[in-house]
């Protein structure tokens, strides 16, 4: 007895082998197997599951029938099926971000990450070619000069030579000595200091301050302090994640402090090169990445580049994630009205019900009851024949207190006289 039905996924509607159930004409798009009862393998779709799809946001799997991504494309991809890489010079979510102009091959960067594929132009550093030597060529000052040629700018001229004539130096009998450069406001990431080979003892015990005041720099941020009894290396590198204007190299030899034997008697600064790696104030803070164009007003955190605020209907660190289904608003915390005709379906920005309201309710958010005397879908129906002309139920139209004389039924829309005459 033939009890089993051919698969509805057979290409020729319900046409299958009467013994095995195998679809005679093949399967509808998105289905496979002799009986067309299996979906395409992950990231395949279409007729005979021959077409490939993917590159979906959040690692989602594309639809096995259409090849469409359920929530949009991953970074670096666009198109209805997310199969088009960002065009040259662009990268990231929806290909909205621009490659750095400092990439060596004119705006050539990875279409997903934005990393400059072939390095940077001279003077630019970092994988995005957006970091620079902030000190290079900036105005510098020094507490004293040991020689007429000991200009403070010798320490930030880009020449790291370690001979005396290429280094700046203070006089040799100070109790305090400092060198300072005006960065004009920047986000510092790290520092590399090179000094003369014979001056390790004078360097020992130094401190680095970053401040917004050139005179009272010791009230600023202490970025680094060498407090070891051993002498520092000839080339020192250290992290210094801070924002400020003045970078000050400071050392002292106070009479009331006992220093290790390896330390010099007096405070001397002898710097050959100071390289301060970082990014400019308007280049996204410590990440040196510009704020995402999806950030509200393109404002982001100076340390992380995460958006300070998203436009309504979006969330996430870069404000590219749409509100999940059933929610809307500035932080995606507002649930869609339960009076939306399509449950949980409203505009992610405004909250407006996509398919209108259930019976008895109106308004873009479906929060308003039908006005008195109206009911039903879009409040288009009028209450009739309620006793004492009272209003009816705004959803069903039934009269709450009964019908006027001569009328009957839930909605008081049946004439008693007509019913009587039929009898």
UniProtKB/TrEMBL annotation:
Transmembrane segments: none annotated. GO terms for molecular function: scavenger receptor activity. It comes from the Eukaryota. Keywords: EGF-like domain. Residues 1-37, 48-83, 94-130, 299-333, 335-367, 378-413 form the EGF-like domain. Pfam families: F5_F8_type_C_2. Coiled coil: none annotated. This is Multiple epidermal growth factor-like domains 6.
């Amino acid at each position: 007895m033939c009890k089993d039905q051919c698969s509805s996924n057979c290409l020729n509607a319900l046409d299958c082998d009467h013994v095995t159930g195998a679809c005679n004409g093949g399967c509808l798009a998105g289905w496979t197997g002799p009986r067309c009862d299996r979906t395409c393998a992950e990231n395949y779709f279409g007729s005979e599951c021959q077409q490939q799809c993917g590159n979906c946001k959040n690692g989602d799997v594309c639809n096995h029938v259409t090849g469409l991504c359920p929530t949009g494309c991953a970074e670096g991809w666009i198109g209805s099926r997310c199969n088009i890489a960002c065009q040259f010079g662009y990268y990231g979510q929806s290909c909205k971000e621009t490659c750095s102009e400092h990439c060596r091959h004119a705006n050539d960067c990875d279409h997903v990450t934005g990393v400059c594929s072939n390095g940077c132009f001279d003077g630019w550093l970092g994988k995005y070619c957006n970091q620079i030597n902030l000190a290079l060529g900036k105005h510098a000052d020094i507490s004293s000069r040991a020689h007429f040629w000991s200009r403070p700018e010798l320490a930030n001229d880009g020449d790291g030579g370690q001979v005396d004539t290429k280094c700046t130096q203070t006089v040799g009998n100070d109790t305090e000595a400092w060198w300072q450069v005006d960065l004009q406001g920047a986000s510092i990431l790290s520092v590399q200091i090179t000094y003369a080979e014979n001056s390790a003892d004078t360097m020992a015990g130094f401190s680095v301050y970053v401040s917004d005041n050139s005179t009272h720099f010791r009230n600023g941020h202490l970025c680094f302090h060498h407090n070891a009894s051993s002498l520092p290396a000839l080339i020192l590198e250290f992290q210094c994640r801070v924002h400020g204007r003045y970078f000050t190299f400071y050392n002292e030899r106070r009479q009331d402090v006992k220093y290790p034997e390896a330390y010099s008697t007096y405070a001397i600064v002898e710097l050959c090169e100071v390289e301060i790696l970082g990014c400019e104030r308007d280049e996204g803070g410590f990440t040196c990445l510009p704020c995402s164009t999806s950030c509200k007003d393109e404002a982001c955190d100076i340390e992380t580049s995460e958006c300070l605020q998203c436009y309504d209907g979006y969330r996430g660190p870069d404000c590219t994630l749409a509100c999940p289904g059933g929610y809307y608003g500035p932080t995606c915390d507002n649930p869609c009205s339960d009076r939306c005709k399509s449950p949980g379906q409203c505009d992610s920005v405004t909250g407006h019900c996509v398919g209108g309201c259930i019976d008895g309710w109106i308004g873009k958010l479906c929060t308003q009851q039908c006005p008195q005397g109206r009911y039903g879908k879009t409040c288009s129906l009028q209450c009739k024949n309620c006793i004492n002309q009272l209003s009816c139920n705004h959803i069903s139209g039934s009269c709450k207190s009964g019908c006027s004389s001569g009328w009957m039924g839930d909605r008081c829309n049946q004439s008693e006289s007509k019913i009587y005459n039929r009898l």
